[in-house]
Amino acid sequence: MLTKFKSRIKDRPSMAGSTGKGFPKFLAEPRESFPHGVLVTNPQQSSLAQLTAKCMEYVEENLTHHPAILFRNLPAQTAGDFSIIAREIPGKALTYEGGASFRQRIDENIGTYTANNDPDEISIDPHNEMSYSSVFFFCVKEPADGCGGETPLVKNSDLLSSLDPDIVRRFEEKQLRYVCYLPDKSNAEYMNWQHIFDTDNREVVETIAKEQGRNFTWDPSGDLYIWHNRPAFIHHPVTRKKTWFNQATTHHGSYYRLLPGGDKIQENKYPSHTFYGDGSDIEPAVIQHLLATGWSCAVGFKWRKGDLLVLDNLAVQHGRLGFEGDRKLLVYMTN
Ligand SMILES: [Fe+2]
């Protein structure tokens, strides 16, 4: 069901780490039912809602064994169809406020979003979505052949067993620190902390941060750093497997270097940045190792319009190859 193909990724422009050590030459083809393709037969004989309900039963029974399932041939083409699909998905929809990337809300009532609004040419390295358990992608517009836009998928278990054990141990001992930088409005017109928190009162901000279990640091110019430490691992709630689960590379400041004007950002002013939990820098070689290993473990597949991809977000990472031309994916996430 899935077309076999390989996209070259080594030395690819706008892709973090692609010119560095250990980066694979190609994004691998789908393998061993990863992702697990399911062709919907006789799609015209039932309504989209009924078919989706059946697909969700299939997901319920199979997701532990097949943590990435791709449904093809559903009678669905549009954002409106995806709303119908989302309505049939069990579990509570979670909103995306506070996430690292920019998304646009598609359906206010249902909770569907565009997958990512970062510039098309930028590739996004494989990652797990913050704290969601399931992620559903829907293809509204497939990228043309040879134009990129594949979604790389990585099993967290493959990644953990491929990482340098010394580096894994380091993260185990030190954990990770996530820092979010929010300038004062006198220093930045957009995305300043007054705008984000809808207040000029520092005490209000501090109370919210404490409630979220986060720490804060004000710098002399009035800029704000909000930060917290998190383990680099979780235990999967169903399989109980120890799982590499963090955003060490995706939230790392080096990503912003790829964005337009990113080369001008000062090192302490990346919108987000990651450190070891003791506040020390993660060595560039370690970031390179994480990126190169992630892409080495990844498989890609060609999207078709109407595809529905269901991921166990606690077991599978996703990303994006930069693309040219039209390509549109929508996303829905549940707890
Ligand atoms: Fe994502």
What do you see in this structure?
- The mean pLDDT is about 90.
- The protein has 7 helices and 18 strands.
- A 7-stranded mixed beta sheet has the order 3-4-16-8-18-6-5, with helices on one face. The chain has a 4-stranded antiparallel beta sheet with strand order 11-12-10-15, with helices on one face. A 3-stranded antiparallel beta sheet has the order 7-17-9.
- The protein has helices spanning about 50-60, 80-85, 155-160, 165-175, 195, 200-210, 285-295; strands spanning about 5-10, 25, 35-40, 70, 105, 110-115, 125, 135-140, 155, 175-180, 215-220, 225-230, 235, 240-245, 270-275, 310, 315-320, 330-335.
- The longest helix has 15 residues, at about 50-60.
- The protein has about 325 residues and is α+β, with helices and mostly antiparallel strands.
- The chain starts with 6 loop residues before the first strand and ends with a strand.
- It is globular.
- A hairpin with a 5-residue loop joins strand 11 and strand 12 (about 225-230).
- Fe (ii) ion binds next to loops.
- This is TauD/TfdA-like domain-containing protein.
- It comes from Porites lobata.
